Amino acid sequence: MRLALREMRRRPGRFVIAVVLLTLVAALLMLLGGLLDGLIARSIGAIEAQRADLVTFSSTAERSFLRSRIDPATREAVAAVPGVARVGGLGVLQVGARVPGNGPRDLVDVALFGYEIAPQGVPRPPRLGEAYADRLLEDSGVRVGQQLLVGPARTPVEVVGFVDDVSYSGAGTLWASAATWRRAQEQNKPNAAVASGVFQALVVDGTRDAAALARAVDEASGGATETVTVAEAADSVGGVREQRSVFNQIIGVTVVIAIVVIALFFALLTVERTALYGILKAIGARSQTLFGGVVLQAVIVAAIAAAIGGVLALVFDALIPSGAIPYQLVPGRVVTSAVSLVLAAVAGSTFSLRRVLRIDPASAIGSST
Amino acid sequence: MSTATSEAGTGPSAGEPSALRMDAVRKVYGSGENAVVALDHVSLDLAPDEIVALVGPSGSGKTTLCSIAGGILAPTSGTVVVGGRDISGYGPKQLTEFRREEIGFVFQSVNLVPFLTARENLLVVDEIGARSGAPARTRADELLDELGLTDRAGHLPGALSGGQRQRVAIGRALMNDPTLVLFDEPTSALDTKLGDQVTQLIRTEMNKRGIAAIIVTHDERIAHYADRTVHILDGVLTDET
């Protein structure tokens, strides 16, 4: 092992190419991860922020707010289930909104939520005609005190403050009282108007095991509801699964590329070192000691590349204008990418194992004469 | 190749333990029609402080003999005992351990680790085994001092002369206090004058420590420095002087 470390210290130039290539791979891994996290956060922030264990949809809605309706009778049945601590109504209207004074490009996509239980980071519901705006909308020119004109009917909604990390389905959100949402729904989508007391979904906070409580809720409603955890509801937001799947496949391919880079590089180094390994084996070095040195070098190269890649990802994060692209670099993603790269290095270096084992110590003194 | 039994076993006197005892050792490469007999019933005894020059042309089997004596190759048949250890039936793992503990090697083209200093090249013997740490460092410094390399201890092989590199290689071979040191053409890369100096150094160092050595060579002049010279031809020990 010391031998491997000394070689890296004394001949750093030999490892530069591998470090450069893996740094690019590391930066790509973190960039892809950041984009995935950013996209997902913009899709499900509003759901994940709910202070509840469960979300209840109508059973025919296939977990879609648009198709779901919960009437007051069903709500009462849900609230009466033992273990249910509190129930809140939730509805969302996805439309365009005009931002006054924002020039020719004054139309911005919004999701107007009507809520009863305040999600994390969102105050209690404001007065009729008012809403808290997602910080994402600030980048589209939305300001506190401004009156947005929501939907084709141009329902006026005044922004009374900003809230963070509550985007929905790629759009900035507006958080309003149930009455404000119901009015906007009625004016902009009259054939999907929601009667008083009716919501699209319920958020349910419980005092018992979430899965058991969900089953109890659906039984109590006589099969009229489908109740899922908040995480499952978030996963059901349109496009989330597809985004995750596509990005994870690209990330997987990138990790495979890292394995190939490491495997090729250290296979070449091992070929170069055949004579040296022959000598070392002849004087008593074990194959596993020599192979351990190869793995150690691969891990160090990958760790250096991950560190530089992490810095590059942070610089990228700092350089991109706020809200320009959905990019969110979280510590967990950086750590996961670094660990993936180190594991790829271990996997890649194992391709040299057979080569190291096959080196004959007799080659040190030429055995066939 | 010859099939005659060959012997060169006049090393240790009766009752004296051998540093090396090879008895009817045979080495065959390949099988069937492609079989090549590299060593044919070779017997050889070395006293604990004896230096033997093994002389023969290319392809005569001298390196194979050396490799079997040093535990790098296993014989096809016959017995090999080094320092009282019968290594004839050893597997690869046991042979590796045996080489680390009992054998010193000086290779033809020196073959020091290019990115290690002279001192570190000696210490590598300790690092590849069960490390002893401070005692190994002390021993390395002593050997470098005895070989006149103290002021070159911190230099990489590339900064050393051919003779200095060969001395470092000798020091590395002595690091594990071996029973037997095998020199594979130690002067082939050196000019005549330097070759004589290195051979004299080998003689002095081996005698001082009472270590047995086999010097594989084409060069008959090395015989002057050896206790005896054994000739090998076509895998058979032919005569000795």
Strand and helix map with partners:
The complex is a heterodimer of chains A (369) and B (241).
Chain A: H1 2-10, H2 16-48, E1 54-58, H3 72-79, E2 84-98, E3 107-115, E4 130-134, E5 147-150, E6 155-163, E7 172-176, H4 178-188, E8 201-206, H5 210-220, E9 225-229, H6 230-235, H7 240-272, H8 274-282, H9 287-319, H10 331-349, H11 353-358
Parallel strand pairs in A: 3-7, 4-6
Antiparallel strand pairs in A: 1-8, 1-9, 2-3, 2-5, 2-8, 4-7, 5-6
Helix pairs in contact in A: 1-9, 2-7, 2-9, 2-10, 7-10, 9-10
Chain B: E1 6-8, E2 20-29, E3 36-46, E4 51-55, H1 62-69, E5 77-82, E6 85-86, H2 92-102, E7 103-106, H3 118-127, H4 134-146, H5 162-174, E8 180-184, H6 192-209, E9 212-217, E10 228-233, E11 236-240
Q: What global shape of chain A is seen? A: elongated
Output the radius of gyration of chain A: 29 Å
**Can you count the beta strands of chain B?**
11
Radius of gyration of chain B: 18 Å
What is the mean pLDDT of chain A? 92
Are there runs of chain A of 5+ residues with pLDDT below 50, and where? Answer: none
Mean pLDDT of chain B: 86
The first-to-last residue Cα distance of chain B is: 23 Å
Task: State the end-to-end CA separation of chain A.
Answer: 33 Å
Q: What general form of chain B does the structure show?
A: globular
Largest sheet of chain A: 6 strands, mixed, barrel
Strand order of the largest sheet of chain A: 2-3-7-4-6-5
Largest interface: A-B, 25 and 40 residues
So how many helices of chain B? Answer: 6
Number of strands of chain A: 9
